[in-house]
Every structure is written in structure tokens, then in C-alpha cells.
User: What shape does this take?
Amino acid sequence: MSDIRVLVVEDDPRTAEAHGAYVERMPGFVLAGIAGTAAEARRALNAAANGGERIHVLLLDFTLPDGDGLSLCGELRASGLVVDVVAVTAERGLETVRRAVAVGVVQYLIKPFSFAAFAEKLGAYAAYAERMSRPVSALSQSEVDTAFSALRTSNAQGLPKGLSAETLETVQHLLATSATALSATEVALPAAAAKGAPRPSTPAIDGVRRVRISAASVRRAGRRG
Assistant: This one.
């Protein structure tokens, strides 16, 4: 299979540059360009198609100066332009995710994310694209299942020892609703109380410390996208 050409669609120049650099670090992927608006993305896609250099993937932010990314996806599908979409956004609302599925988004990356998470999603897409590029006119059920299963990944990382998923969710809520940054102990004690648990052990507090993040950064992450 030839290289997968990617168009980054992101209005923030620094973020766009970072995502472009991520693409260039991925074997088998080529950065076809960067578009800062929906209009620029349309022009880039049409120019590539007319020039015989198809763009395979949009790395698409949903919040653009001249429209939202999901509407752009719907427009492209209606026009018959074949391009896969990897969403890169801070939007995580249920209705947004449903709309993303409805317009054919194949991968969904929630900001902020690490290069490891990015590489996992694009690596999974590459496996899917390779299976879908085979020179056959029809696929068996097992081949279809295998192709779609290649897209299934998870950003979830193993939790530190002493930190359960339930506690992590409580910690994230405490940080998101706090007006100031909290220490590990300030977070761990209320989290334990919310569960009706005894004073947390040292490993549990250490686990919270490993995921410590300021309330301000949580709010900033929620505003991006």
C-alpha cells in the first residue's frame, strides 16, 4: 500500500504544527498540508483530487473559524468526496460523538493527548486501510469484521497501583470543580470520603499524586477544540 496522505485541519497554528509533526513521525504517513479553516480544507481536498494526489485522511478539529468540523464532514460525504476522518478535538459530548459516528468519523482523539495515543489511533487506521485496499471486489464477513476490529483502540492507560477507576473519576471531578490547584493529599482525602472509605493508604495517595493536575489545566483542556 502507498503512503497515507494526511491533511491537518486545525485553526490554532501551534497545535496544527504539532499535529503535523506527529504525522511526519509516523511511518507510512505523509503530511499533505495544513488547513486553518473549513474553506482551506475544501480547496486543498479539491486541488489534491484534481491533481491526482488523493488525500486519504483529514486530521480534523471540530471548532473552526468558518464552521464546525462535523458539518464539513457531512458536506464532503454529500459531495461524494471519499476521505476518512480522524477527529482531533476537545469535544466529548454524547451528541457530538453520535454525530461524528453518523458522518463517518473513523477515529476519535480527545485533546489533550500524547504522541503514544496519536500513534495508536493512526496505526490502527493504517491496519484498517491496508485491509480495505486489497484488490478484491467483495469481502467475506470475517474480512469485514477484521477490518473494522482494526479500528478499535483505547486511550486508557494502566492506572497506578492503589488508584481505582472510580477514585480517578472522583479525583477528576474534584479538580475540575476546584477554583485552585490541589495537592495530592487534599484530593485523596475527599475522594476517600466520597466513597465512604477509610483514610487512604500511602500507595493510594501516591497514585493520586501521579495523576495530579491543576484545576486550571482541566478547564483549559475543556475549552480547546
